[in-house]
Design a protein that fits this description.
By secondary structure, the chain is of the alpha/beta class. The chain is 34% helix and 29% strand. It is flat. 35% of the residues are buried.
């Protein structure tokens, strides 16, 4: 059957315009609330600085910007006025000044139309309490069908448990109360305090956590506590290394054992949130790896950083190669389950993951010491993905750097058959041409399997790459 001819352009333009009008009418019909209706409804509502309506994906949302000093009853009254307009959801934000959006605290609520309207007063009380409490940095309330979620972040660690207990008192009377409170110390990336409660407050677990915390703060040198996590399923205590496990367990044993207390674990970690979701059978104690590395030649420091051990080197990646041999001899099974981040004095990074290719350390060293301008290197690995190799150099042209990488890979003796590469050259005038591509290792040498960019760039890449491989074969 012959394909119908396309309509002339004017017809197409009219068809497109008609479609847009239809979509607009459908959106208005689905929402059914005009800007004028919202403006009139909130004209005399105390505390409301601005009220707007939006209908993304044919679902109507009313957004309310309220004065930071609004009272609990004013907030809940504003929510009720919004409910009377029958939106799909209501978003509430407390602002010091809604016009400039200046804000010291982040205080918001999302109310689903199908949530219990009786819970609105508790949302108002929680927002008003947080606004009047400088110990609260973040409060987010979320009301849905048969649930009321409250998420908080205190300003200081010292206020953590007090803020959590008060927040629970506010959310407990609601339908399906759930609370999450977290805290991350400034300058760190891992959570060091976490509390989650569903249905009831974990009083016994909190009492134990506070007892352990007080013992730690009183002794300070007894054990290095990195975090505390309290959830309905139990308690996790994070400590810095294996030497801290025994004194931490002693602190647990000396603490209260109230009714309903779940299992208590002491884990070597700097992020109790991450540790919570790890299978206990798969948790790795990196203490032995850190001990071996700390005494290794050329190591400035070795410490737990998230789920990996960060190894800062005093010099270049040449130092990392004998360290890998040292770890194979001394760390045993612990090495086979630990991710390592080698970081040179100049900021180059090579990541070695469990079951990954250890020869990437050698590849990094070969790239950085190959003839040509000095550069900055990053090599990372992910499970079931080819290693990523990124190289940035200061050079007048990109092509010679691509040939340089090709020569290094052609000579490299590694266990990887595919790489993802990215190379960038910054010339004296500040221009930064770059290219990303993948390479497959074949019996005749590394070949460009795929590249990103124009056909002209791809041709230049393959020509430069071929020159580099041929140079290595001489």
């Amino acid at each position: 059957m012959p394909r119908p001819a396309a309509p002339p352009r004017p017809v197409r333009r009219r068809a497109r315009a008609t479609a847009l009008v239809v979509l607009a009418l459908l959106s208005l019909a689905a929402c059914g609330i005009s800007d004028e209706t919202v403006e009139e409804a909130f004209q005399d509502v105390p505390g409301v600085q601005e009220a707007t309506v939006g209908c993304p994906e044919f679902s109507c949302t009313i957004s309310l910007d309220l004065q930071l000093g609004s009272e609990a009853e004013q907030i809940s009254d504003a929510i009720q006025v919004a409910r009377d307009l029958d939106p799909r959801e209501i978003l509430v934000t407390l602002w010091e000044d809604a016009r400039t959006h200046d804000q010291r605290q982040h205080l918001t609520a999302r109310i689903d139309a199908d949530s219990d309207a009786a819970d609105d007063s508790y949302v108002g009380a929680a927002l008003a309490w947080a606004a009047d409490n400088p110990d609260v940095a973040v409060l987010e309330a979320d009301l849905g069908p048969e649930r009321a979620d409250l998420t908080l972040r205190p300003t200081r660690r010292a206020d953590f448990w007090t803020v959590a207990e008060t927040a629970w008192e506010l959310v407990a009377p609601t339908t399906g109360p759930r609370l999450e409170v977290s805290f991350t110390a400034e300058g760190t990336t891992g959570l060091d305090r976490l509390l989650r409660a569903t249905g009831e407050f974990p009083t016994a677990a909190v009492d134990l956590a506070r007892s352990v915390e007080s013992q730690h703060d009183g002794a300070r040198t007894a054990f290095a506590l990195t975090g505390l996590a309290v959830q309905p399923e139990g308690v996790i205590l994070g400590v810095s290394d294996a030497r801290a496990v025994t004194p931490a367990e002693a602190a647990v044993a000396a603490g209260p054992r109230g009714a309903g207390l779940g299992p208590v674990e002491v884990v070597v970690t700097d992020n109790v949130f991450t540790a919570w979701f790890q299978d206990p059978a798969e948790r790795v104690d990196p203490t032995r790896v850190i001990q071996v590395l700390s005494g290794g030649p050329g190591v400035e420091s070795a410490r737990l950083a998230g789920a990996a051990v960060e190894v800062r080197l005093q010099g270049s990646l040449a130092t990392a190669m004998p360290l890998m041999e040292l770890l194979r001899r001394e760390a045993g099974e612990a090495l086979g389950s630990t991710t390592l981040h080698f970081v040179t004095a100049l900021g180059d990074v090579v990541e070695i993951v469990p079951g990954g290719d250890d020869s990437l350390v050698m590849l990094g060293h070969e790239l950085l010491t190959s003839p040509g301008p000095t550069g900055t290197l990053e090599i990372t690995q992910e499970e079931d993905e080819p290693p990523y190799v990124g190289l940035e150099v200061r050079a007048p042209a990109l092509a010679p750097q691509l040939a340089r990488v090709a020569s290094v890979l052609a000579r490299h003796q590694g266990d990887t058959d595919r790489y993802q590469l990215w190379v960038r050259a910054t010339d004296p005038e500040g221009r930064t041409p770059s290219v990303g591509f993948s390479v497959e290792m074949t019996p005749t040498g590394p070949e460009v399997a795929e590249s990103r960019g124009t056909e002209e760039q791809a041709a230049e890449l393959r020509a430069a790459w071929s020159r580099g491989v041929q140079r290595a074969a001489r």
